[in-house]
Design a protein that fits this description.
With 379 residues, the chain is an alpha/beta fold. It contains 12 helices and 12 strands. It has 2 domains: 4-112; 120-210 and 230-377, 3-Layer(aba) Sandwich (Rossmann fold). The protein has helices at 4-22, 27-37, 40-49, 59-73, 77-83, 91-112, 123-131, 215-223, 230-243, 255-264, 285-299, 322-325; strands spanning 140-145, 159-164, 167-172, 180-185, 199-206, 249-252, 271-277, 304-310, 337-345, 348-357, 363-366, 376-377. The longest helix is centred in the N-terminal third of the chain and has 22 residues, at 91-112. S-adenosylmethionine (SAM) is lined by residues 114-119, 122, 145-148, 152, 205-208, 254-256, 277-279, 282-283.
Length: 379
C-alpha cells in the first residue's frame, strides 16, 4: 500500500496534464493520463518508479516518456500501436500489459533519464526574440541553459513563417531549410521582422547533454515528444538531419555553476546571449537565483543578453505573473509561456517581456508594450 498523500498528489498532476496539456492536442496521452489517474495501482507504481529526489511536478511527463521509449523499442506491441496512433487499441489494456511485462524497464528509464524534450518549434519564438536584440553590430555567442541536444542553437538555420489568419506576415531563416516552422500570431501586435544576429559561437550546459548521433540517445529525444503530433516528429527528424552532421559543443554540467563561466569566457568581440527555453522549471528556485545573480555580476563588466522562453513564474526579472497568465490559460492549449529579454548594457539591466507563446511554438501573442510591464531598469 503506497502513501495516499503522494498518490493523491500524482493523481492531481495526471489529471491536470490531461485537462490542460493533452486534451485537444495529444488524445493518446490524454487517455493514458486519465487511465493512470483512475488506477490506485498505477499511481503506486509511478510513485515507486520515480527517483526519490525527482521533482514531483515532472514525474507524470517522465512516466509518459518512459512508456513512449518502451514503445519505440518495439518490445511491447499493443503499446507501440497505441503510440503510433492506432485509435482501435485499448489504451488502458496496452498500458497495463506494458507495465506487467516491462515494468522493470520503465522503472530503469525513470531512474536514469529526465525529461529532455528538445522542441524545435520553440525556435519560432526564439528567432523573433533574437531579432529584437540590439547587438551593437556584434555577432553573438549563443549559450544555452539546458540545451538537451542543442537543436535550438541552430535557430538561424531553420525557416520560420509568422502567419495571421493564413497570411504570412514575416519570415526568418533560409526558405530552403529542411526545418520549416509555422507560428500563428495572436492579438494585434506583430514582432519586428529583421535579420537575425549572426551567430558566431554555439554552446550550452546540460546535466545530460544528448548526442543526437547516438541511436539510443536520439530515441530518447523521440520518446520525449508526444504522440498524435506528426508535425512535431517531422521537425525533430529534420533538425536531427542537420545537427548530426554538425554536432554542437555542449558542456556536461549544471547551469547554476557552469553557465556563467562560459558567458564570462565568451570572445570579447561577441555579444553573449544566454538562451533558456523550458529549462528553468527543472532548476530549484535558489539555483535559478544564483544563476541570474552570476549573470548580473558579469553584466556589470560586459554587455550580454538573456532570452528566455519559460513559464512567467520562472522568468528572471518578472515579479508579478497575473497579467501574463490570465488571458492565455485556455484548457488544452498548453502551459502559457513567456518570451522575455533581459539585456545588460553599459552596466545596467532591463527586462522586456515580449510575447506569450504556446509552449511548443504553435502560436505567439506579441506585445508591443511589454504587457504593461514595460521596459524596466532593474539595475
Ligand atoms: C524540457 S528540456 C528543454 C530542452 C530545450 N531547452 C528545449 O527547449 O528544447 C529541459 C532541459 O533542461 C535540462 N536541465 C535540467 N536541469 C538543469 C540544470 N541544472 N542545468 C542545465 N540544464 C538543466 C535537462 O537536462 C533538459 O535537457
Amino acid at each position: 500500500m503506497g502513501d495516499p498523500v503522494r498518490t493523491d498528489e500524482l493523481r492531481t498532476l495526471f489529471l491536470f496534464l490531461a485537462d490542460h496539456d493533452f486534451a485537444g492536442y495529444s488524445p493518446t496521452y490524454e487517455r493514458i493520463a486519465r487511465h493512470v489517474a483512475a488506477s490506485p495501482e498505477l499511481l503506486e507504481f509511478v510513485d515507486r518508479a520515480a527517483a526519490p529526489n525527482s521533482r514531483r511536478g515532472r514525474v507524470p511527463v517522465l512516466f509518459h516518456a518512459a512508456l513512449h521509449d518502451l514503445a519505440l523499442t518495439g518490445t511491447s506491441t499493443p503499446l507501440a500501436r497505441l503510440m503510433a496512433g492506432d485509435s482501435s487499441v485499448d489504451a488502458a489494456a496496452a498500458v497495463d500489459l506494458a507495465i506487467a511485462e516491462h515494468g522493470a524497464d520503465i522503472v530503469t528509464t525513470m531512474r536514469t533519464r529526465s525529461v529532455q524534450t528538445n522542441e524545435v518549434g520553440r525556435s519560432a519564438a526564439i528567432a523573433a526574440g533574437l531579432a529584437t536584440i540590439d547587438t551593437g553590430d556584434r555577432a553573438i555567442a549563443l549559450i544555452e541553459c539546458g540545451p538537451s541536444a542543442g537543436l535550438n542553437l541552430f535557430v538561424d538555420r531553420w525557416h520560420v513563417e509568422l502567419l495571421r489568419d493564413g497570411t504570412v506576415l514575416g519570415t526568418f531563416g533560409p526558405s530552403s531549410s529542411p526545418v520549416q516552422l509555422c507560428c500563428e500570431l495572436r492579438g494585434p501586435d506583430t514582432p519586428p521582422i529583421g535579420p537575425l544576429p549572426s551567430i558566431a559561437a554555439r554552446t550550452g550546459v546540460d546535466p545530460a547533454p544528448i548526442d543526437a548521433s547516438d541511436p539510443v540517445q536520439a530515441r530518447w529525444l523521440r520518446a520525449c515528444l508526444w504522440p498524435d503530433l506528426p508535425e512535431r516528429s517531422a521537425r525533430l527528424e529534420a533538425a536531427l538531419s542537420v545537427v548530426t552532421l554538425e554536432p554542437p559543443s555542449l558542456v556536461r554540467g549544471d547551469a547554476v555553476t557552469d553557465l556563467a563561466p562560459l558567458v564570462a569566457a565568451a570572445d570579447p568581440e561577441l555579444l553573449p546571449v544566454v538562451l533558456s527555453t523550458w529549462a528553468m522549471a527543472y532548476i530549484p528556485a535558489d539555483g535559478r537565483a544564483s544563476l541570474v545573480a552570476a549573470l548580473d555580476a558579469i553584466g556589470t563588466r560586459r554587455d550580454l543578453a538573456m532570452l528566455t522562453l519559460e513559464e512567467p513564474r520562472f522568468t528572471p526579472g518578472i515579479d508579478s505573473v497575473d497579467q501574463f497568465t490570465s488571458a492565455y490559460d485556455d484548457e488544452g492549449d498548453g502551459t502559457p509561456t513567456l518570451l522575455s529579454l533581459r539585456h545588460w548594457r553599459e552596466g545596467s539591466v532591463m527586462t522586456t517581456p515580449l510575447a506569450m507563446c504556446h509552449p511548443h511554438g504553435r502560436w505567439m501573442a506579441w506585445s508591443d508594450d511589454g504587457f504593461d510591464h514595460g521596459e524596466r531598469d532593474d539595475g
